[in-house]
Amino acid sequence: ARHVDGDELLALVDAAHDEVVTPLMFEYRLLERARSDIRHIVLPEGDDDRILRAASILLQRQAARLTILGDTTSISNRAERLGVEISGAHIVSPHDPELVDRFASVYAALRAHKGVTLERARETVTDVSYFGTMMVHLGLADGMVSGAAHTTAHTIRPAFEIIKTMPGVSIVSSVFLMCLEDRVLVYGDCAVNPNPTAEQLADIAISSAHTAARFEIDPRVAMLSYSTGESGAGDDVEKVRTATAIVRQRVPELLVDGPIQYDAAADPTVAAAKMPESPVAGRATVFIFPDLNTGNNTYKAVQRSAGAVAIGPVMQGLRKPINDLSRGALVEDIVNTVAITVIQAQGDDERE
Fold this sequence. Notes:
Elements: H1 6-15, H2 23-36, E1 40-43, H3 49-60, E2 65-69, H4 72-82, E3 90-92, H5 97-110, H6 118-125, H7 128-137, E4 143-146, H8 152-162, E5 173-179, E6 184-188, H9 198-214, E7 220-224, H10 235-250, E8 255-260, H11 262-266, H12 268-274, E9 286-288, H13 292-305, E10 309-316, E11 322-324, H14 331-351
Parallel strand pairs: 1-2, 1-4, 2-3, 4-11, 6-9, 7-8, 7-9
Antiparallel strand pairs: 5-6, 5-10
């Protein structure tokens, strides 16, 4: 089994809050934590009005240092027409000759095994997602937020090629921070992996517990299935059972249980009947879904039916933070995601 720093996870858990947290409180805390130790975030989609409005708010609140990609004159003129102040941001053209040459040289070396030539690399790195990812890779920015005008694949594919996963993690995954009326829950994976194996599901669970603790949510992990405890059988249940055993082996200090149904994980009354001895049942904070179909539909159902604020997807498992926006993202969503990316970058420094 790969080594997981249990002491680090416990230290994060010790600092986590277990109290009533409203969506407004959580969003306020995000910005306050970002402001406490600001980081440099690149926003590749400078031609999107929502990005410019969000950038203005972030700069005003001093939550991040920002680089916006695009044409300097066009972006400045558009910001002026919108009535937003972004003079504190650094605007960089993805066609800057010096940076394109530097990025192309590095990218060609990274992808030489795939037959990428220097000429092809020059063409590739002028794509804003690749350009922004290269900035993060080379330390010219601490993180990237994109996706308001691009697909998830377009946003995160360069990260898979260039940033890659952190040590001890085999898979990049994602969570949504689900802000309910009085608490914040973590749902994973709801955006990236269609049908993870048991080993991958264990990785997702451990990464999600780290993410929860990073955002001051005490991680109690429910490995979800259509069966609770020993009551069911079948390949799908066995996958979750195996994944749960792997998590316990790799991080014995982590509170985790499964397979468990959602109601038993969330409702103390149901938990008392189905898993009375479980330290997780009835009080889970991190919900790990067995596949993308279940996770994606559940987060959307809770978002729409329970009026939850869904923040994310928050990418996890990468060496440096790259986060994806929904193409329907509101300005508030972009502000929150940048704050999250800043906090992730702060955590990267602590690990180093």
